[in-house]
C-alpha cells in the first residue's frame, strides 16, 4: 500500500485499479503516510500559507431540484432571499477591511440574476477593488454567459461536477439536469480562461469506490486549478434526509490523494468538513488542503443558505469567523495571508 502512495507522490497518477486498491484498503497508518507526503508537497508549493476566500451567498433561489440540496426548488420551507448589489458591495467592503482579496459570489441558479445583472455586479466589485479576484459559483450557464462574465473581470469559477459517474449522476439529480452539460460547462470555463474548480461530495448516496475512482480520473483529465470536496451531509427537507453522511476519514484521505495528484492545486478545507467535526478544517489543512472560505454573507441571511443540516458559521459566532479561522490555523502552525491567492501557475 505504501508503494502506491510513493508512486502517486512520484508520478502524480495511478491506474484505476490502483486507486481502487488504495481507497478500499486504506487504514490509519497508510493515511498518516499519505498525509505526511501531501503536507510536504503542499509546503513545497505554498509554504505554510493558507489562502482565504470571502464567501458571499447572494441568493438562495434555485431553479434546480438536486436530491441532496437544502435549497432545491421543491423545498417550499426554505425562506428565500436575494442580496442587492449594494449589499454585496457592503460584504466586499467588510471583507476587504478584514484582509480578504478574493470574493466568491455563490448562489443557486436564480434566473432573476440575468447576465446583465451579474456583469454589473462583477464590474462594480472590480472597479472598487481592482486588486481583488472575483470567483463565481452560480451553476450552469451558456458559453456566451460565461464569456461575458469573464470579459467583465471574473477571474475564477467553481462548478462542482458532483460525480463523474453517469449512472451515479442520474441518482443524485432529476432528469432535467444533464451530466453531459455539466461536463461541457467545465471545459467551456477552462477554454474561456478562468481558473476553474470542480469537485464532489464524499459519501453521497449511492457512491461506490468505482465512482470515486471516476472522480479522480476526471479530475486528472480536467486538470483544474481548484478542487472542492466535502462530506455529504443530509438535509431534513430533501429526498436524502435519511441517508448517511459522508465520513471525515474518507474526506481527509481523498484530500491527501488529490494533493499528490495535483501538487499545486488550490484545495479548500470546506465548511462541510468543519460541520462534521469541530476540528475538520484543521485536519483538512493537515491532510494537504491550503484554502479556507469563511462566510462573508450578512448575518441576517446566513441561516437561510442551508444546503445541509447543522451548517457552521451561521449563528452569533459568525461575525468572528475570520478571527476564529486565524486562531485555528495558527494553532496548527499555518498562517492566513492577505493575498489574492492565485494558483501557482499564474502567480507573478
Ligand atoms: N451536503 C454536502 N454538500 C452539499 N452540497 C449541496 N448539498 C449538500 C449536502 N447536503 C454541495 C454541492 C454543491 C455545493 C455548493 O454544495 O456539492 O455543488
Ligand atoms: Fe466561522 Fe469559526 S470559522 S466561526
From TrEMBL:
It comes from Thermoclostridium stercorarium (strain ATCC 35414 / DSM 8532 / NCIMB 11754) (Clostridium stercorarium). Pfam families: Radical_SAM (PF04055). Residues 48-270 form the Radical SAM core domain. CDD domains: Radical_SAM (cd01335). SUPFAM superfamilies: Radical SAM enzymes (SSF102114). Keywords: 4Fe-4S, Iron, Iron-sulfur, Metal-binding, S-adenosyl-L-methionine. The keyword Membrane does not apply. This is Radical SAM domain-containing protein. S-adenosyl-L-methionine binds at residues 162, 182. PANTHER family: 3-METHYLORNITHINE SYNTHASE (PTHR43726), BIOTIN SYNTHASE (PTHR43726:SF1). GO terms for biological process: sulfur compound biosynthetic process; water-soluble vitamin biosynthetic process. Signal peptide: none annotated. (3R)-3-methyl-D-ornithine binds at residue 137. The keyword Iron-sulfur applies. [4Fe-4S] cluster binds at residues 62, 66, 69. One of its GO terms (molecular function) is metal ion binding. Its cofactor is [2Fe-2S] cluster; [4Fe-4S] cluster. It comes from the Bacteria. Binds 1 [4Fe-4S] cluster. The cluster is coordinated with 3 cysteines and an exchangeable S-adenosyl-L-methionine. InterPro entries: Aldolase_TIM, BATS_dom, Elp3/MiaA/NifB-like_rSAM, FeFe-hyd_HydE_rSAM, HydE/PylB-like, rSAM, rSAM_sf. NCBIfam families: rSAM_HydE.
